[in-house]
Amino acid sequence: MPGDFYLPMTLQELTAHVSQQFTKIYGRQPRWIVAAPGRVNVIGEHTDYNGGFVLPMAIERYAVMAADRSTDGKNVIQIRDTVKGVEPTLIDLSAPVKPGTPKWSNYPRGVVAGFLARGINPGGLDVLLHSTVPLGGGLSSSAALEVCTATLLEAIAGKKLDPVEKALLCQKAEHEFAGVPCGIMDQFISVMGRENHLLLLDCRSRKPELVPMNDPSVALLIVNTNVKHELSGGEYAKRRAQCETAAKILGVPSLRDADADALELVKGKMDEVVYRRARHVIGEIERTTHAAEGVRTSNWPTVGQLMYASHRSLRDDYEVSCNELDAVVEIAESIGIKGGVYGCRMTGGGFGGCAVALVKAGAVEAISKKIAVDYKKKTGIEATIFGSRPAAGATVWPVRAIK
Ligand code: GAF
After folding, report:
1. Sign of torsion over alpha carbons 234, 235, 236, 239
2. Which pTM was predicted?
3. Contacts of 16 (CB under 8 A, 6+ apart)
4. Nearest of 224, 201, 196 to residue 51 by alpha carbon
5. Which class for 183: exposed (0-12), middle (13-18), buried (19 or more C-beta within 10 A)?
């Protein structure tokens, strides 16, 4: 694929780049290099905290950390960013680790606190962070940062956590340090992603199932509306609470345990908004398992239709879309299967961020151009469009191999 439609650098090149930057900044070579991917969710939105199914894949965009033990004898983790002007983070290990500043530091802070709580103390460190996951794009830049930190601490301790425990530790960091009551999807996929596979995750049993996605005739396009999405604003927490209210009225532990008929029976007892929230979740859980079946059988037109249905439901019932995301989906729909688009939907928490489109691989360039031009016309904003194959989850890079 020409240009930087796919990741402009391979992960190996990226880790080599961060290693060089570390040497430039800290004056010596790093001892550890780790990477954790962002994700795109193909379908199954706002279902994770309802015990439902999600179908994400890890993308070829990563948070990368290079690190070495600090040389000043202080019990402090210093994290610098390769982006100039980003305030460094100092995590003092000689006092209890608490939320602090800068704001972004709360993701690594929460993870460090989780390791300390398990008796794993990494000691003073010099760390360099470099992330290619767009910030505020709804592609889990925060989960990538958490899982990257956790992977670094595992490498330093020489001890691997159980993958489920690791994902839950990172989720807890997000709840308690960043104040976002997120579900488990983002951290799970960043830990457990597999090349050429989607992950069908049952968020109630936490059982992951790999679904092969390696048909060369299709590609996934990620369209960043460049409208920043922010989950700590309260709307996400409000949706969670509305789902809990609906489950209570239905008399079930979570909406995973309800179906459309049961919901209709109690419709009269529910606030209309709560009813629509529940209708989205119940429908979306069903769409997700159908879509996974569609991916297994390469039934792309069906998967595409389910993606459109998911978007409509998120827009009308769950009300987490925005005009710019709707514009992308409308443009995709106008291109249609004839032009190579099977389906398109907003992805992630919503309120901005990215849309994901399932397209014919041979039409990627033409579709990207058409979406870029029409989106600019409709909104006045430049979209950023890129592709990703399903990537592997968090990895530790042998430093010797990249020198
Ligand atoms: C965000 C959350 F972090 C996830 O847990 C999930 O709920 C998603 O929004 C919506 O599906 O990414």
Report:
1. positive
2. 0.96
3. 402
4. 201
5. buried
Q: Which two tokens stand for residue 129?
A: 């962070």
pLDDT at 402 over 70: no
Q: What residues are annotated to the active site?
A: 186
Residue pLDDT, tens place only, 146-182: 999 999 999 999 999 999 999 999 999 999 999 999 9
> Which region, left, alpha or beta, applies to residue 275 given φ > 0 means left and ψ of -120 to 50 means alpha?
alpha
- Which amino acid is located at 244 in the chain? E
Q: Give the integer Cα–Cα distance in Å for 103 and 125.
A: 20
Pocket test for ligand 1, best of 48, 171, 174, 345 (most atoms within 8 A of CB): 48
| Pairing of β 53-69 and β 32-43 | antiparallel
Substitution candidate for ligand 1 out of 46, 175, 204, 354 with most atoms within 8 A of CB? 46
13-69 pLDDT, tens digit per residue, is 999 999 999 999 999 999 999 999 999 999 999 999 999 999 999 999 999 999 999
Identify whether 208 is preceded by a cis peptide bond (ω within 30 of 0): no
Alpha-carbon distance 221 to 81, whole Å? 28
Distance of CA 101 to the CA centre of its chain: 23
DSSP 269: G
Residue among 227, 219, 223, 228 at smallest CA distance from 373: 223
Ligand 1 proximity of 178 Cβ (cutoff 6 Å): no
List the structure tokens of 377. Answer: 């016309």
Q: Report how far ligand 1's centroid is from the alpha carbon of 360 (Å).
A: 27
* Residue 235 structure tokens: 């709307």
Q: How far is it, in rounded angstroms, from Cα 354 to Cα 208?
A: 24
Closest-CA residue, ligand 1 atom 9, reads 349
* Ligand 1 geometric centre to CA of 236 (Å): 9
